[in-house]
Amino acid sequence: MAHYPFLRAAYLNALADTGAVGAAAGWHDMSLGDRSPGDLSLESAAQGWMPLYAKDNPWGEYVFDHQWAHAYQRYGLAYYPKLITAVPYTPVPGPRWQLPAGQDAAAWLWPQIQAQLQDTGASGWHLLFPDQPTREALADLPLISRQACHFRWFNRGYADFDGFLDALVSRKRKGLRRERRRISEQHLRTDRACGNAIPERWWDAFYACYASTYLKRGQAPYLSQQFFRLLAQHMPEQLMMSVAFDERDPDTAGTDIPVAAALYLFDDSRLYGRYWGALRDYDALHFELCYYQGIEFSIERGLNEFDPGVQGEHKLLRGFEPVITWSLHHLVDRRFHDAIGDFCRREAAAVAAYREEALTLLPFRDTVSE
């Protein structure tokens, strides 16, 4: 059984071992309990463990609290360090701890969180992208709930990609087919592979593509090539890569060297689109590798959901539905806790209104008339 990949020791160790997590990166590891160096599953955890980091910057979190930090600064107070429970650089909802059966999560973690807040002088504790069972387990704690709207694709029992297209209104169905045709019209060829079947030469090409996404914005990638190599070595059974080849590229034509690539992780029920890049611009190629290849794979594997990553209203027109994601927050200073709680309640109303409007833009036949 393939569990949620982002709490696996293999994933978290890869972050730490390559310096993506650590003091130099601004993620000071203060995790509660003892995570075995082995590959624990949620069901087999021998004792309580929860990731916890002291942060001195906002990078790699994807729950944006810059205004809160500025408010502290205006009043001459320190917002950093703050304590974060999250999967670094990974805005994917899911469980946020490993506990043995029968252990009460709130009773186990809350005294430890309070002790850490006091010992570190942190301004507060922030739990990012918890799933519903995690939120329910902490419902009685003095935490602020904050909402955001992301996009998910849901598998409604489609037999194949054409079955998914048949669920769309004709205009949108034609648009998706036109985007997929653009791949061959540009003399591009696509392929995908899982785990140990991913060719070795794809990995170097993938990282060049991934890094180019950041370099175009004038910044270095968060994650190193060695990080991805460690994933391939220690958890290949939860990796899928989709790639594109340019049959007219003088440097790669006739070879098996991709010019664009997207790397996914998956478990028994969900596909997670995480990392993408291309060495040059191609029309509709991002949609093909990051959306349509993922939808096809989800249907083939019988996965229930596909999380393509944060942001992007263009996902709506391609069948990704708006869903609410959450974060939980506790500020030590009661004045800020109350003020931020009021802000989050007002923000939630705006998020709910945005989601309702987004639902009207979905391309499905049962929500939009032909």
Topology (elements, then pairings):
Elements: H1 9-17, E1 27-29, E2 32-33, E3 49-50, E4 53-55, H2 66-74, E5 82-85, H3 105-120, E6 124-128, H4 132-137, E7 144-154, H5 161-166, H6 170-185, E8 188-194, H7 200-215, H8 225-234, E9 239-246, E10 260-266, E11 270-278, H9 285-301, E12 305-307, E13 321-331, H10 334-359
Parallel strand pairs: 5-6, 11-12
Antiparallel strand pairs: 1-4, 2-3, 4-5, 6-13, 7-12, 7-13, 8-9, 9-10, 10-11
Q: Could you explain how this protein is built, in words?
A:
The protein has 370 residues and is an alpha+beta fold. The protein folds into two domains: 5-150 and 322-359, Aminopeptidase, CATH 3.40.630; 156-303, Gcn5-related N-acetyltransferase (GNAT) (Aminopeptidase). Helix content is 35%, strand content 20%. It has ten helices and 13 strands. The protein has an eleven-stranded mixed β-sheet. Strands 2-3 form a two-stranded antiparallel ribbon. Helix 9 links the parallel strand 11 (270-278) and strand 12. Helix 6 (170-185) packs across helix 9. The radius of gyration is 22 Å and the shape is globular. The two termini are 42 Å apart. The relative contact order is 0.15.
* Share of helix, binned: 25-40%
**Approximately how much beta-strand content do the residues carry?**
15-25%
* Uncertain residue segments: 37-44
Secondary-structure element order, as H and E?
HEEEEHEHEHEHHEHHEEEHEEH
Helix/strand-derived class?
A: alpha+beta
The main sheet comes to: 11 strands, mixed
What count of helical segments does DSSP give?
Answer: 10
Assigned CATH class of the largest domain: Alpha Beta
The strand count comes to: 13
| Gross CATH architecture of the largest domain | 3-Layer(aba) Sandwich
Spatial strand arrangement across the major sheet: 1-4-5-6-13-7-12-11-10-9-8
C-alpha-based Rg, rounded:
22 Å
Query: What's the structural domain tally?
Result: 2
Task: Provide the residue-averaged pLDDT.
Answer: 93
Principal-axes geometry comes out as globular
Oligomer: single chain
CATH topology of the largest domain: Aminopeptidase
